Amino acid sequence: MGWSFTYGATRRNIIEEVTRGWTHDDGTGSKTIKHCCRGNTLYAVHENTRCNGEVYRFIGVHLLQRSSDGWGYKSISEDMGPYQTNCPVSYIELAEEMPPSDGMGKNSIEWRAKVRKEARLRSRKYTVGQVVESVRPLRYSGGEVTRFKVMRLPKGGRTLWCYDADEKVDGILRLKKTQIAGVERNDRRAAVAATKEKAA
Hints:
Oligomer: single chain
Distance between the termini: 61 Å
Structural class: alpha+beta
């Protein structure tokens, strides 16, 4: 499905439109169980009813965008393997797995695995002074950086403010938790030792 824009529509109007339920005379219908926005990505758990009375749930990923005439959206079902993966994990628990018989079950399973993985990465705890390594070299205006030294933990928990641990690039660098491969081994040992010393 492509983009659909509505003249004069606000962002709220589009969210209401996408999450509004409907019912046909043959008994088929759809309603939204839960929804939320992460930036301009609207995640929703939809519950559909087939003509035979069968009820099933799935996660819809709806991209929101503003044009010069009004807001619009583009809807993607989880079985299409969306690129966006910061969906609340609790939504997965609300929606049943897409059955392989639907032909797209594999995409849904793989997408849900990515959602769970990103949630685990975002929930990791770091401390000021730790040295972390990125999954791959990240390019900044001063060059590429792989090793970062944490200097600040902003509220929200998704991004770290760091310095280049190798001091090749100047300035404060922003690093998403999902870009971190892990903490350097020596740094982990130092952190554990510091924790034990503090406890003693």
